[in-house]
Amino acid sequence: MKYESRILGKGDFVAEIIREAEKTVRRYLRAGEINNSIDNFIKEICLKEGVAERELRVGVRTRKYSGVRAKIAYYLSHEFGISRAEIARQTGVCTSAIAKAIQNLEGA
């Protein structure tokens, strides 16, 4: 029988709660690792997508750059739990642009 002292309930219920929690757990980074991880991720995606990192970071608004920026924003938000404000600072656009990009990808 599965048991977890922080969850009230019997075996099957506890197992289900733990499974659901594990699905939604994001990887959290220590403060010092956040900027390095963001930088490395942005460099990797820019290289893969064939866009100039510098131009992405200064907010170039062509369709290609906007699409790459949206992918970056979605991933950093959902996988690393990075705030939209921080993503906006790293990618050269405003927070509302990041929110809209993430919302568009979630609806797609």
Briefly, what is this?
Helices cover 71% and strands 0% of the residues. It has 108 residues and is an all-alpha fold. It starts with 10 loop residues before the first helix and ends with a helix.
Q: Helix tally?
A: 6
* SSE-based structural type: mainly alpha
**Number of structural domains:** 1
Instruction: Note poorly predicted spans.
Output: none
CATH topology: Chromosomal Replication Initiator Protein Dnaa, Chain: A
| Count of extended strands | 0
Helix percent reads over 70%
Give the overall shape, derived from the CA principal axes: elongated
- SSE succession: HHHHHH
CATH hierarchy class name: Mainly Alpha
Distance between the termini: 41 Å
Radius of gyration: 18 Å
- Give a quick account of the main beta sheet: strands, pairing sense, barrel closure: none
Strand content: under 5%
The whole-number mean of residue pLDDT values reads 83
Present the secondary structure layout.
Elements: H1 11-24, H2 31-49, H3 53-57, H4 63-80, H5 84-91, H6 95-107
Helix pairs in contact: 4-5, 4-6, 5-6
What does this 3D model show about the protein?
- This protein is mostly helical and 108 residues long.
- The chain has a single domain (28-107), classed as Chromosomal Replication Initiator Protein Dnaa, Chain: A (Orthogonal Bundle).
- It contains six helices and no strands.
- It has helices at residues 11-24, 31-49, 53-57, 63-80, 84-91, 95-107.
- The radius of gyration is 18 Å and the shape is elongated.
- The protein starts with 10 loop residues before the first helix and ends with a helix.
- The mean pLDDT is 83.
